[in-house]
Amino acid sequence: MKRFMAFGVALFILAFLAVLPASAATLAEIRERGVMYVAIEDEDFGLFHFRDGDKCSGLDYDLAQAIADAAGVSLKTVPLPWGDGEAGTVSGAWGKGGWPVFGVDLICTAATITDERAEKVTFSEPYSSVGQLVLTLKEKKLTTIGQIKGRKLGFQQATTSEATARESLSENDLVPLPSAIDVMNALRNGLIDAALIDSPVALAEARKDASFHVINELLTEEHFGVTLPKNADPELKALVDDVVRSKGQALNDKWFK
Questions:
Q1: 124 is in which domain, residue-wise?
Q2: Do the beta carbons of residue 156 and residue 179 sit within 8 Å?
Q3: How many domains does the chain have?
Q4: Using one digit for the tens of pLDDT, what is the confidence trace for 104-141?
Q5: Same-domain check for residues 45 and 81
Q6: With 90 as the cut, is the pLDDT of residue 27 above it?
Q7: Are residues 210 and 228 in the same domain?
C-alpha cells in the first residue's frame, strides 16, 4: 500500500513540473503570475502539517496561506519529500542539491533554523520555538532520560532529531526512520522503545493517544523558520517576516493551546 501511495505522490509532484517557476522569483514576479508556490513536506508532522486526502492543514499550511494572502495571490502547495540531503527534497534544499529543483517560491514545513542550513538558504524570523522530547509507551515505565540508556531510540533521519540523538543519546541503539509517521508507528508496534521528536509533535501525540508518555526533559531549544532561497528577494523576505511577526503567535495558539 505504501508503495502505491508513494507512486501517487510522485505523480502529483510531476504534475507541478510544467507550471512551477524555473528559479527563485521576486515578490513582483509572484504578484504578476498571481500564484505563490509553497513546498510543504509530503508526510504528516503532528499539527504542523497533515493531510486528509488532497487537503493540507496545520500551522504550516495556515502560515503559507497568510503569506500568500499578504502578497495578494492564490496559494498552491507542493508536496516535497524530506529525503536525506539529495536534490529535490526538503533536506536537499540546503544540502547537495541547492534550492529545490521544482522552483517553489519558499518552503514552509517546520524546518529548524541552523547555521549550517543558513549557509545555503535564507530563513525568515522564527515562527515557532520547540525542543526535542522523548516519547515512550506508558507500559514500559520509562520516566527519565537515564532509563532509556541502551534501548532502541527512533527518530526521523536527516533532521535535528537525528543530530540530537547522535550527539546526546549515542549510547542508545539508534534507529533512523524515513518519516515522523514511521517513527510513531514503530513506537506503537514495539519496534523501538522510545522516540525522539519535536516537542509540539510529542505533546500532541500524547494528547491523542493515552498509551504514550512524554519524558519531560527538553534536550534542545530550536526555532522553526520559513525557508527562502539564499538570494531571496528583499521585498519577499520582508513580507514573510511581517506575516511571521503578525500571525505567528496566533497560529501557535490556535494549534497548540
A1: 2-128+222-256
A2: yes
A3: 2
A4: 999 999 999 999 889 889 999 999 999 999 999 999 99
A5: yes
A6: yes
A7: no
The pLDDT, as a whole number, for residue 16 is 47
Annotate 53-117 with three-state secondary structure.
CCEEECHHHHHHHHHHHHHCCEEEEEEECCCCCCCCCCHHHHCCCCCCCCCCCEEEEEEECCHHH
Supply 104's cell numbers.
517553489
Q: Which of 230, 23, 235, 40 is nearest to 117 (CA)?
A: 230
The CA distance from 215 to 145, in Å, is 7
Chain mean pLDDT for the chain: 89
pLDDT digits 0-9 by tens, 164-202: 999 999 999 999 999 999 999 999 999 999 999 999 999
CA-CA-CA-CA dihedral for 150, 156, 160, 166, to nearest 10: 30
Cα separation values, 91 from 94, 155, 189, 252, Å? 6, 15, 27, 24
Residue 84: the pLDDT is: 82
Q: CA 6 to CA 62: how far, in whole Å?
A: 25
User: 3-state SS of the chain: helix, strand, coil percent to 5?
Assistant: 40, 25, 35
Same domain, 144 and 231: no
3-state secondary structure of 127: coil
- 67 and 104: one domain? yes
Q: Are residues 23 and 88 in the same domain?
A: yes
At 57, which CATH number? 3.40.190.10
Nearest Cα neighbor of 152 from 134, 164, 139 is: 134
Same domain? For 42 and 142 the reply is no
